[in-house]
Write a structure and sequence with these properties.
- The structure is a single chain.
- The chain has helices spanning about 5-15, 25-30, 30-45, 45-60, 75-95, 100-110, 110-120, 120-140, 145-150, 165-180.
- It is mainly alpha-helical.
- It folds into 2 domains: about 1-30, no CATH class; about 30-180, Phycocyanins (Globin-like), CATH 1.10.490.20.
- The longest helix has 24 residues, at about 75-95.
- It is flat, with a radius of gyration of 18 Å.
- The chain binds phycocyanobilin (CYC).
- The site of phycocyanobilin has 20 residues, from α5, α6, α7 and α8.
């Protein structure tokens, strides 16, 4: 597992040179508090983000909770919700570390094959991850709207749109999940 710092060391070691290009790490440190806020915005809303995404996935494809569907019976529904939580948790680790290796190595490695063996549908999983991406990015960037959140709308940040780069990085981790299982 690597983070932004150990990644710079590994890259330098590969070319047997000292760590010379420190600009990326300087930015990582300078923007550190923003990063922690973004991680917190996602992590503290995790159960809402996960349950909303799985509910949305099922609304669009109700066959999933009927006999023969992969979210039927309740045991599978619970496994699906748990998997959503696992994925979101590893995405927040990656955002915190500024590096995808923890997500790749400990969560995505072999997941496609596991899902294929269990009959977990990749397109539905990808849809749930896509919804988690949309809501997580809105939370991280402080751009959630009343239209999206309905009665649960809560505006807890006044820096709307200030985390655009971090939000793009966060979106990229969700994209990695989708491409790993598709
Ligand atoms: C460390 C990382 C890690 C991951 C990622 C992980 C995933 C994982 N998901 C599993 C099952 C499962 N995953 C799902 C998920 C879904 N079904 C659907 O229809 C939806 C599309 C989707 C939710 C979005 C379901 C239903 C099962 C149970 C399948 C079965 O037992 O038939 C299993 C098989 C064992 C078990 O049931 O616990 C694993 C290993 N386990 C891990 O330790």
């Amino acid at each position: 597992m690597l983070d932004a710092f150990s990644r710079a060391v590994v890259a330098a070691d590969a070319s047997t040179s000292p760590v010379t290009d420190l600009s990326g790490l300087k930015a990582f440190v300078a923007e550190g508090n923003k990063r922690l806020d973004a991680v917190n915005a996602v992590a503290s809303n995790a159960s809402c983000i996960v349950s909303d995404a799985i509910a949305g996935m099922i609304c669009e494809n109700t066959g999933l909770i009927q006999a023969g569907g992969n979210c039927y019976p309740n045991r599978r529904m619970a496994a699906c919700l748990r998997d959503g939580e696992i994925v979101l948790r590893y995405v927040t680790y990656a955002l915190l570390a500024g590096d995808a290796s923890v997500l790749e190595d400990r969560c995505l490695n072999g997941l496609k094959e596991t899902y294929a063996a269990l009959g977990v549908p990749a397109t539905s999983t990808a849809r749930a991850v896509q919804i988690m991406k949309a809501s997580s990015c809105a939370h991280a960037n402080g751009t959630q709207t009343e239209a999206q959140a309905g009665a649960k709308f809560k505006k807890n940040r006044d820096d709307q749109g200030l985390c655009n780069e971090l939000t793009a990085e966060l979106g990229g981790y969700f994209d990695r999940v989708i491409s790993a299982i598709s």
